[in-house]
UniProtKB/TrEMBL annotation:
Organism listed in the record: Streptococcus pneumoniae
Domain of life according to the entry: Bacteria
This protein's name: IFN-response binding factor 1
Polar residues bias: start-end ranges: 15-29
Region (Disordered): 1-44
Length: 137
């Protein structure tokens, strides 16, 4: 009677014999022929290079008036696509400056103005929905 897992033999196949694995004997590996002093100097050279080259930091450039106006237009168009009348979309846009500034201050790694416009639209749409629920929209 077998106590471990079994392997079924197929016609014409030979059963492989396995031996237990010894956990006490460490594997035999050769030590690299590279001298430690050679690798140490490589690390020192890398550190020197890092110290002489300034670390690049990504700066977010200030948004130009064109960007603001472009985003305003995108958000206004989105309200129109959502079925808002011209008057209703203008009312919804009254908090644009506040939400737009919030987006600039808090949204990171936006590569396209359209993504920022979507964030602003969602914020304004949320404000609009809150006003409507409270009876002020």
């Amino acid at each position: 009677m077998q106590t471990g897992p079994s392997v079924k033999k197929r016609l014409g196949q030979v059963e492989n014999e396995t031996a237990p694995v010894s956990h006490s004997a460490p594997s035999e590996t050769e030590v690299s022929e590279t001298k430690y002093s050679e690798t140490d100097s490589l690390f020192i050279e890398d550190e020197e290079d890092r110290n002489t080259h300034p670390i690049l930091k990504r700066k977010v450039e200030k948004v130009t008036k064109y960007d603001r106006d472009y985003i305003w237009g995108l958000v206004q168009d989105q309200f129109r696509r959502e079925g808002f009348s011209e008057t209703a979309s203008e009312i919804a846009m009254t908090d644009f400056e506040r939400i737009y500034q919030y987006a600039l201050d808090n949204v990171r790694f936006v590569r396209r103005a359209e993504v920022l416009a979507e964030f602003v639209f969602n914020g304004l749409y949320s404000v609009w929905n809150n006003r409507v629920r409270k009876g002020g929209g």
